[in-house]
Amino acid sequence: MARIDEKTTSEIVAAHGAKPELLVQILANIVNRFGWIPEETVRQLASELNLSRADVHGVVEYYHDFRTTEPGKHIVKICQAEACQSMGSERLTAYAEKALAMSLHDTANDITLEPVYCLGNCACSPAIMIDGKTFGRVDEQRFNQLIDAMRGDD
Amino acid sequence: MARTKIYVPRETTAISVGADDVALEIARVAKKSGAEIELIRNGSWGASWLEPLVEVEVGDARIAYGNVTTDDVPGLFESGLITGGEHARRLGPIKDIPYLAKQDRWTFWRCGLTNPLSLQDFEQHRGFQALQKALQEGPESVLKAVESSGLRGRGGAGFPTGIKWRTVANTEADQKYIACNADEGDSGTFSDRMLMEGDPLGLIEGMAIAGFAVGASKGYIYLRSEYPLTHSILSRAIDTARGAGWLGNNIGDSDFSFDIELHIGAGSYVCGEETAMLESLEGKRGIVRSKPPLPAHEGLFGKPTVVNNVVTLASVSNIVNLGAERYAGMGVNRSKGTLAFQLAGNIKRGGLVEKAFGITLRELIEDWGGGTASGRPVKAVQVGGPLGAYIPADQLDVPMDYEAFVGIGAMIGHGGIVVFDDTANMAKQARFAMEFCAIESCGKCTPCRIGSTRGVEVIDKMIAGKNREENYDLLVELCDTMEGASLCAMGGMTPYPVRSVLNYFAEDFASSKEKAL
Questions:
Q1: pLDDT (tens digit, 9 = 90+) per residue, B334-389?
Q2: Which residues from chain B sit within 8 angstroms of residue A135, using beta carbons?
Q3: Domain containing residue A115: CATH number
Q4: CATH of domain B119-328
Q5: Are residues A100 and A137 in the same domain?
Q6: Where are chain B's structural domains?
Q7: A21 has a chain B CB within 8 A of its CB
Q8: Residues on chain A touching B440 (C-beta within 8 angstroms)
Q9: Is there a domain that residue A88 lies in?
Q10: Do B283 and A64 touch (CB under 8 A)?
Q11: Which region holds residue B92: left if phi is over 0, alpha if psi is between -120 and 50, else beta?
């Protein structure tokens, strides 16, 4: 994933009218396109929105979506909430960790593996999300197929 | 000859089990076989267990085919899909499927029926009629209708909507707001998402009516980031409504102006709490505010604000259209009208069931849900999301009624129903309740921030068999503190699931070895 540059940051800020009350929206936009928020972007946002660095830093660190380290090319999220628990998400998570040779919250081999608390797909649990797409009724076999398809798209 | 209409939902759950691929395959096979079809991407009817659910319009009927896979598609065409032909996947006319036919569809009546992005389809199905009626009859008429309908907030708290709207209407201010809470974070809930994906214009109409009734010219929708498809559908619907003059200045040639801004959340559960959501809408950390002042007096940017859930706002159009009396005629006691129950987790026939209050939990789980997906006995049912109690299998005859649930130490909340079979370990579920609170606490108040972490530790000790009785008492005391002294429902209600486990499933704290003794 490309690293956000100064010019793009300014463009995103301008597209939001440089309004400090749109900070969460600006950060969401950056993460959506670039996956994470580097420290120098925090500084730039503070300066362009006329906020203190502490203000921007505080917002960045509060929200789960606002990563401060670079994620892998693919982001795989496995739902850990109750509806998926009742359908074996814990087993599925253990399987995924083994199959991908990594733990939740890790980034390795182009993949970032994250927990998520509810994808709103609770009638077809367990659910996972790969690169922004939600999949339901995921068992081990289907997990493998979905990961293969994800890698096949590279 | 007119082209045959084939419906395949564009809805997160349907797509999560293959609806997009099925739609592509239908288009491919139709083209190859020369069949003249019009592929419509409708919303979901909510029968998630039948997804992908394909319908074909034959005469006046829509013939349904359930659990269709891409592999089925060529065979379906050979069996005469275009004329509603026989096939193993054929379910018959959609309106005769008991799961749907027996519901009381008030708020979700257009979901599945229409193309969510077609203004024409919306207008042919009562779309914007309620807004026009409101504009003709005036704000007072809307306020009276909402008050006498008995509608209560469907986000979970169940506060009377009419009182909230009246308070904002009566508060003098140069600017007022409508803030729609679409941060549907409770596990086991998806009704907001289904409504926004299946009938986004219905929500927009409800928000505009709310704006007109209280004198607000601006609305915000705070949508969680876990719903990217919803984001795309809702943005397009807002553009469509604006393009047709249903949002913007002088709506319907009246002097009422109203517009909507769509905001996206960033993965914080507590931002579903109304004051944390307002903070987040202002671009800040989603930290809960102390109340008072109430958002109805000082809400978004310090201005009077109606904060309502998606389903609440979307329920209003038909209250205006069909009359408050009809809505209030459904339900029981102080729980009037309908709720969109969501059957989730370990359940055979999961999905959305909109029914009048008063139906029992057992009817929903057994008659609609068909019992567990695993086929094993039900052990516990968590109603109302992560802050809801675990209800044991012998209490399923409780009627769905806000006050009846409070009476058994539970809550209906947003109507999510998560079923667990007898393999579930409830001590682990109690631990998870505390752990989730520790992960998601905004950190403003001590009982929630610290109490949740201490709660995990105490439960760990109990599971490990360390001073189990003493720790049991300590956990009860911790629950009392969190419940009595937390600033909002996050810390204040996390004890609900924990207490229910202590009350009904205490034996699960013993190890399997101990249980065998």
A1: 999 999 999 999 999 999 999 999 999 999 999 999 999 999 999 999 999 999 99
A2: 16-17
A3: 3.40.30.10
A4: 3.40.50.11540
A5: yes
A6: 4-101, 119-328, 331-421, 426-516
A7: yes
A8: 117
A9: yes
A10: no
A11: left
How far does A123 lie from chain B, in Å, by closest CA? 4
Domain spanning B4-101: CATH superfamily: Glutaredoxin (3.40.30.10)
Residues contacting residue A112 through CB under 8 Å, at least 6 positions apart: A71, A72, A74, A75, A76, A106
Strand order of the sheet with strand B4-7? B37-40, B4-7, B54-58, B61-65, B90-93
Cβ distance B416 to A122 less than 8 Å, yes or no, reads yes
| CA B161 – CA B163 distance, rounded (Å) | 6
Six-digit token pair at B126?
Answer: 């009562």
Closest listed residue to residue B187, CA positions, set B216, B224, B161: B224
What is the residue range of A49's domain? 6-62
* Cβ proximity of B187 and A83 under 8 Å: yes
State whether A122 and B386 contact (CB < 8 Å).
no
Amino acid symbol at B195: L
pLDDT in tens, B85-141: 999 999 999 999 999 999 999 999 999 999 999 999 999 999 999 999 999 999 999
The pTM of this model reads 0.97
Q: Is residue A136 part of a domain?
A: yes
CATH number of B331-421: 3.10.20.600
A119–B285 C-beta distance less than 8 A: no
Domain presence at residue A68: no
